[in-house]
Amino acid sequence: MNPGEPTAAFHTLGCKVNQGETDAIAGMFKARGYAIVPFDAPADVYVVNTCTVTHLSDRKSRQAIRKANRQNPDAVVVVTGCYAQTAADEVQAIEGVDIVVGTDRRSAIVDLVEEHRRSGETVNTVYDSCRIERFEELPAAPERSRARATIKIQDGCDLYCTYCIIPYARGPVRSRRIESVVEEATRLTGEGFKEIVLSGIHLGAYGSDFNADLAKLIVELCRIPGLRRIRVGSVEPQEFTPELLEAVVHPRVCPHFHIPLQSGSDAVLERMGRRYRRQDFLDVTRKIQQMIPGVAITSDVIVGFPGEREADYLLSEELCRATGLAGLHVFPYSPRRGTPAATFPDQIPSAVKQERAQRLAKLARELASDYAKGFVGQIREVLAEEQVDGVWTGHTDNYLKVFFTDPAGSSPEETVPVIKREDLVRLHLRRIRPDGALEGLPIELA
């Protein structure tokens, strides 16, 4: 950092879409001459990218905003993201907030900061998310400390599940054109990234706003020379069309799919406004498992939804076991103001929600461990991501976390060149650790 160079710091809450958006915004600040510093450091500008999926997300967002103001009361504090979109006036009222930008017009943030530094006027650009009509392209600018790059290909959601605030925060479905996604993926591959992650708010709806779909995009991406891995984000059970199933069996597509379940009870799924039932979830997961041996299927489950009986909860446990999930995110139901479910009768007491969440989280750990144990003794390719004290961590294509050391001198018959971040390394998976991750021994670069 040069003396006198303006500085900007960033804090991201919530999903991987948010993280990718933060990276893009940071890239815009860099291009305008700002040095990026840690959020804990003094900075001239703080950008907080917020989340509102639960009450806890709102609270953490407010805490991050106040932390920025404490660290430098003279800094420009910018608040963006889903919480800013759904509670713009509330956010603007927080002491120290200078600029509020919702889930659109992020490409103008640097200009807004520069204007504020000249005029001192506070700015609120938030407008009704239902009026957002275009996909805002924010060029991917992944940190070089990361081994994979994320491309946001879609925004918005039209499903309006009864518990979910996100359609109100993100607006209607908008998609990025196939040629634009391919162009960016080609650029990132040329910069050395071997793995691209496709992200979106409702990924399975990609292209529904024009004549395209996720399957067509994946087919085009698989043609990019040098792109070794394409990782697909969350896709709803009912959106695995025959065309998409055919596309994802390509060897460049990572055999890891996140398919939200939310509940194993048909009665609860109906009250949630979900577009599938438990048998649909079971059918699609079994079909994928038959087509792609060893595939990792992960999921989300909400416990304590209004009216959920113990028998309903047990159906969720049963279905998670039956599908042999590789991982599971568990969420106690959190009422969101403005959603239908927040006013439903038979709200579940907090203690019951927490108890069910703990039980399901225990099952999630067991399922993840059982899945990982099935790969001990195998040889798998791992993307080298981070090295600390000589120990590397990375992930297999099916998203198993693996620890391994640089092999120099470790074995006379196993010779591997010096490993670098973003290398794909063939590892012999030797054992499972107490934390559920695997340990491996490098054999060769892939």
Structural commentary:
The protein has 446 residues and is an alpha/beta fold. It has three domains: 7-127, Methylthiotransferase, N-terminal domain (Rossmann fold); 148-373, pyruvate-formate lyase- activating enzyme (Alpha-Beta Horseshoe); 379-445, OB fold (Dihydrolipoamide Acetyltransferase, E2P) (Beta Barrel), CATH 2.40.50. 33% of the residues lie in helices and 23% in strands. The protein has 13 helices and 18 strands. The protein has helices at 16-31, 55-71, 82-86, 88-92, 109-119, 166-170, 178-190, 214-221, 242-248, 266-272, 278-291, 310-323, 350-373; strands at residues 7-12, 35-37, 45-50, 76-81, 97-100, 123-124, 148-155, 174-175, 195-200, 229-232, 256-258, 296-303, 327-332, 379-388, 391-396, 401-405, 424-432, 438-445. The strands form four sheets. It has a six-stranded parallel beta sheet, sandwiched between helices. The protein has a five-stranded mixed beta barrel with strand order 14-15-16-18-17. Helix 2 links the parallel strand 3 (45-50) and strand 4. Helix 7 packs parallel to helix 8 (214-221) and helix 8 runs parallel beside helix 9. The chain starts with 6 loop residues before the first strand and ends with a strand.
